[in-house]
Amino acid sequence: MTWSEMQPLLEQACTETLVMVGWSTLIAVVGGLPLGILLVLTDKGGLLQNTVVNKVIGQIVNIGRSLPFIILMVALMNFTRWVTGTTIGSEAAIVPLAIGGIPFFARLVETAVREVDDGLVEAVQAMGGNTWTIVRKVLVPEALPSLIASTTTTVIALIGYSAMAGTVGGGGLGDLAVRYGYQRFETGLMWITVAILAVVISLIQFAGDFAARSLHRRGARSGPGPKLRLLKGEEPAPAEVGKVA
Amino acid sequence: MITTSGLTKVYRSRGREVTALDGVDLHVREGEVYGVIGQSGAGKSSLIRCVNLLERPTSGTVTVAGQDLTALAGRGPRAGRELRQARSRIGMVFQHFNLLSSRTVQDNVELPLEILGKSGKERSRKALELLDLVGLADKAKAYPAQLSGGQKQRVGIARALAGDPKVLLSDEATSALDPETTRSILQLLRDLNRQLGLTVLLITHEMDVVKSICDSAALMENGRIVESGTVTDLLATPGSELAAALFPVGGEASGDDRTVVDVTFQGESATQPVISQLSRTYNIDISILGAAIDTVGGLQVGRMRIELPGRYEDNVVPIGFLREQGLQIDVVDHDEPALVKEGAK
Question: pLDDT of A170-225, one tens digit each?
Fold first, then answer.
């Protein structure tokens, strides 16, 4: 197989993967974020403590998380047909991918939001803030670095799932690798797909880490690293400035 | 300004009951700094959290600025609109500052104003004004992580003042700070109390806090208030545990046939040369075991531990003389009713 033969195949496969992963990530985030937050709020001692709601959401999330994706995909076929009109192709693959991604992301959100210091919630309650204010101004912004990291993890998991979706007609890079690399012994093409996937995943991980870290570091002493600081001498201890006149 | 009556808080978990507050009656007058002191586990935190109903009291009432907050609470765990409005008029500062790390200093101070629905311009004007008041005008654009502990607490105080509260609750505000920073934060609270007529209710486990800024104090033990009153009154109360803790003097008797007496001077009596009068009048030798003069609640107070020769029975007359001079006398290790309690411990 020559490069000119491979190029259009690769281009198409990349687009398909992008479409599948892009849309399903978006839906997973939009659906998983409120679910994850609700899991925290309705938990025992939470702001909206509600055992029934908590148990129900928790159970749904658990089932969604533990079901092997390939089975979820098959099980959802009727639903997929009802939504998209077909069970074949990238668009059809978005449905099981998104539905698999929602509980995945929701659990990560739950963990991230739980990390937010209760004291901050208490402080905003003491100011007279309601639950919605607390979610908007405390829980989400304070958990943002972790939420970004969670999104990265979700995107990468969905790329993995999308390869599976590919084998049942979803298209994309995984599908290409299986059809050409495995079934037609086009080892060259397979390795190129593997390389593309590896690069894409590394880039996503890097971008995600960078975004999370730069948000997390916000406010933490930035500027010269340890070496430069030594040259400039020890930083003076932060002084108590100003008093009421 | 703040009144609690019969305040009780019982925590239930796994069938076990823990009584954190056991019928607390507290009365904080307008414009004073009131300190509640006690060891950890005494119920101080529950008490201050019950004042703005962050904790729902099991029974009893809380009235702040004439408004019965317990009546606003409703049944569920969520705070209704009225309670939230009432809370916005009560400022609160915390031991660990509780500033949002994702917001700048200015945005942290603006947060309560956002909740109150103020316009952007009004918010930033007010926030800058408050930052100026706490001496942090130049840090408006900094993030909390860039500040020292004392600066963070100043931001916390500015934030607490954003809603123009009449009442400030301080939950161990200085407990995470070093002694010098503690002093400057207490000074700030004192200044705000004077300048803005702010009523301050603070809880602490540090006697120094009560000593340096409180007009009144209460001692909490096992969910109950065991002693309370203005600092002046407490110091004048024989056998007061709080007074003794506020103003300890050391020194042991040098022999069995000695009488050790704690003498407390306040105001007028502090200027009288009582000890030399005592010595001259009764022709006795007095040794001073320990003495200190300090400012407690803005008041000059002196306390001295002296030793008289002879047993208590031999010294009834000189002690009577000291009492006549308007001094407060506590005989140490003698079976006076007030001290039986101490001996029992």
Answer: 788 888 888 888 888 888 888 898 899 999 999 999 999 999 888 876 655 443 33
Indicate the pairing of strand B167-171 with strand B90-94. parallel
CA distance A200 to chain B (A): 30
Q: pTM for this structure? A: 0.81
Nearest to A219 among B87, B115, B145 (CB): B145
Q: Give residues with Cβ within 8 angstroms of A209, minimum separation 6.
A: A149, A152
Q: Which residue of A has its CA nearest to B129?
A: A244
Cross-chain Cβ contact A131/B78 below 8 Å:
yes
Name the residue in chain B with its Cα closest to that of A219. Answer: B143
Tell me which CATH homologous superfamily contains domain B2-235. Answer: P-loop containing nucleotide triphosphate hydrolases (3.40.50.300)
Q: Which residues of B4-43 are buried (b: 16+ CB within 10 A; e: fewer)?
A: beebbbeeeeeeeeebbbeebebebeeebbbbbbbeeebb
Closest approach of B192 to chain A, Cα-based (Å): 8
- Between B136, B144, B181, which is nearest A242 by CB? B136
d(CA A115, CA A132): 18
The residues spanned by each domain of chain B are 2-235, 248-344
Q: Phi, psi (5° rounding) for residue A141?
A: -60, -40
Nearest-CA distance B38 → chain A (Å): 22
| CATH fourth-level superfamily of A17-117+124-218 | MetI-like (1.10.3720.10)
Q: Do residue B163 and residue A141 have CB atoms under 8 angstroms apart?
A: no
Cβ-based neighbours of A217, under 8 Å, separated by 6 or more: none
- Which of B163, B164, B167, B148 shows the shortest CA–CA distance to B105? B148
pLDDT in tens, B41-90: 888 999 999 999 998 899 999 999 999 998 887 666 677 888 999 999 99
Indicate whether this complex's ipTM tops 0.90: no
In chain B, which residue's Cα lies nearest the Cα of A47?
B78
Chain B: residue whose CA lies nearest to A223? B146
CATH code reported for the domain at B248-344:
3.30.70.260
